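Purpose: get a first structural picture of the assembly so the mutagenesis plan has something to point at.
Setup: two entries, given in the order below. No constraints added.
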Amino acid sequence: EVQLGQSGAEVKKPGESLKISCKGSGYSFTSYWIGWVRQMPGKGLEWMGIIHPGDSDTRYSPSFQGQVTISADKSISTAYLQWSSLKASDTAMYYCARQYVYNSPSDYWGQGTLVTVSS
Amino acid sequence: DIQMTQSPSSLSASVGDRVTITCRASLGIGNYLAWYQQRPGEVPELLIYAASTLQSGVPSRFSGSGSGTDFTLTISSLQPEDVATYYCQKYNSVPFTFGPGTKVDI
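Result (structure tokens, whole complex):
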């Protein structure tokens, strides 16, 4: 069974760093792209970027380029989304999702990681 | 970047009604268009890809059509479990932008 297991909820202060994870199982992790999607409270879905764990090819939305870093460790079938300095506006649910090829839809999604940034 | 719009932003219909949601791209995207359903408090799920192909396990009352810039999602007979927000997404090239969503109530 295909699963994307995300790390647990986080509560952080502005200026702190954070790295959340998404572990793939039940399929060949290096054969699929992993994307990240933000959903701010009560708002819609925003596409952030994708990575191919096989070769670490990474693409970002212009809206998120320079704001976050997407990475992956294929040896442990895990993708990451990280911030170096969080802002209150980063408070959101973050989903990882799998794509078969670069230009394909997301067929499996993680359960989401809630990130709360508050002083 | 290509912008995605949806209409209406919300709708209320009765059980058994036919519901149609429209998605428009600011430039042509071929058939690289997906529809997702997000029930309240749940994770988004893929309903339709390639504009009109039903994802495995999705009820046949859902259908999609269109190509280029104009697309539609149709629910032929609305059911209580269809209460959700529906998003279109383009995936022809980065960024794989989502539409703003259409909230469907009963």
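Residues 48 and 54 of chain B are 5 Å apart (CA to CA).
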